[in-house]
Amino acid sequence: MTTRFAGKSIIITGGGSGLGRASAVRLATEGAKLALVDISQEGLDATVAEIREQAPDAEVITVTADVSSEADVQRYVDETVSVFGRIDGFFNNAGIEGKQNLTENFTADEFDKVVAINLRGVFLGMEKVLAVMNAQGDGGSIVNTASVGGIRGVGNQSGYAAAKHGVVGLTRNSGVEYAEMGIRVNAIAPGAIWTPMVEGSMKQLSADDPRGAAQQFVQGNPTKRFGEPHEIASVVAFLLSDDATYINAAVIPIDGGQSAKY
């Protein structure tokens, strides 16, 4: 087991499933102290159980929170600092898929819900964590979860695409702003990764056969397959680590070549 995160305190939002869970397990095995945040305590408990299987001595706290609530975001930041004393890294990952529909049929309420979680939640997390890191005075690393849908158009997902394009903008802007403070801000842009959220999207395409819809969906990908959460976690860990000290304000596709093809 490597220890490149020994003594480091890292927050992960959306830590109760999918990319957040896989990244939590990866970081725990490398020595990180983790504050896991999710709307679902059940999901958080399952993540902690998986961590205990691979890193029994890992220091982990869980915080149930709605990332679109400023009070909740301040609370998970405060609890992290209270327990661990500082924040060294932040995987700003929580998100939802939203409804799939033509823009003209996408209601304002549906749009607002997706943007509240996927963009406002990312902004609030950055706002609060950057303030702590800046006050600490010794740098830090933030990784935001954008999407292939944040660097190109995706059909029938206006709210999701708008929010993820916003995440890309926030990432680049804050990376430039905070570079002189030693704080790096990057984003990952996952493509088709098989997670509960993506499975929900496939159910919207075919409620009776989401796996069949998934197989048809990935035929447009050069790899002809979905990615796995652990393949994202390895990149997240790299970007949060000191192995990536000259990578800043970058948006890194992890999509099997999907964004290069279209």
Automatic annotation (TrEMBL):
InterPro entries xref list: NAD(P)-bd_dom_sf, SDR_fam
EC number(s) stated in the UniProt entry for this protein: 1.1.1.47
Domain of life of the source: Bacteria
One Gene Ontology term of the molecular function aspect: glucose 1-dehydrogenase [NAD(P)+] activity
Gene3D superfamilies cross-referenced by the UniProt entry: NAD(P)-binding Rossmann-like Domain (3.40.50.720)
Keywords: Oxidoreductase
Family: Belongs to the short-chain dehydrogenases/reductases (SDR) family.
Name of the protein: Glucose 1-dehydrogenase
